[in-house]
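Collaboration report, partner site 2.

Our partner group contributed sequences for two proteins of shared interest, and the home lab folded both. The records are reproduced in the order in which they were received, starting with the first partner submission.
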Amino acid sequence: MSTEGAGQADHIMAAFPSSTRHRVYRDIVVGMAAILEQDAAAGADGAQARDVTDLIDCYLMDLASIAVTNDHRMNAATEPGYTAKVFNAYKQALLARLPADSPLRALVPSDKSMFGVINDFRRIGTYLAINNRGDSIQQPGLT
């Protein structure tokens, strides 16, 4: 990884575990995940434990695709085996930072295989093909 030739130089720093940007990104994701987990555990309307797993999976795939491709992320689809290995390494690093009694540990996604990476990119391609711009997550009638 290098900021030289990167898709976006500042994004590269998020993939370096020793960087401030990585720490801030991780802490934000872990904080969001903790709130989602608490809401799901309390039975809040619409909150599901699966949302926590999806959030962490998205975070780990973001880091892996940045690291593998120097932030030319769609290229990660051409290296699914390597992307999966990097995803799993970031996952282990995250687990090492979570307290042993953290309820988030049970919601961290399972290890990703090359087929899991291929499936993730297939889903992204499908969403792009049907022109999903996030409308499915907006509440009706709210602006």
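Second partner submission, folded after the first:
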Amino acid sequence: KQDVNGRKRPSYKATVVLGEKPTSKVVSPSNANGSGLVQNEIYPSILFHGPKFQGIKSVKISGDRLEAQCTIPSGTPAQPLALDLIFQSALILAKKNRGIASLPSNAEQIKFYKTITSDTEDFVITMSKEGGSNSDVVWKLEYSMQDVKGTVYNEGRVSIVLNDTLKY
């Protein structure tokens, strides 16, 4: 599309569909199996985000499944960071499973149920890769974001693009 001065501007499209509230999904992170990483291993080696966007405290990975323990750092806009943490989690899963870098590609669907605020206690992102092969260039991932009591904030499907020419 063009703006009033005739310059081309990107345009975006979203469809809002009101749905039923999901049932609680209680997650017991301490019982999660698989390899683990903590924050000081994640951000200097896998992700490059600055302190205000370092909301992942730890992750557990088992095959194509990830559980991330998250928090909102003080002074950070809560909702934008929470949504970014979904993609950060996906990038960690790809790096640990394939050993290569990836970039966010698409938020195919996000169902919002409850807003995350700066007062939100720690929360959990669970994520799993949808079918396909680990060698695929595009990964589609289902995720859920909930508090430790099982209240779901949002859930949906995102995709990332893996590329072995990207450098960290």
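Feedback sent to the partner group on the second submission included the following. DSSP finds two helices and seven strands in the chain. The helical segments are 39-45, 78-98.
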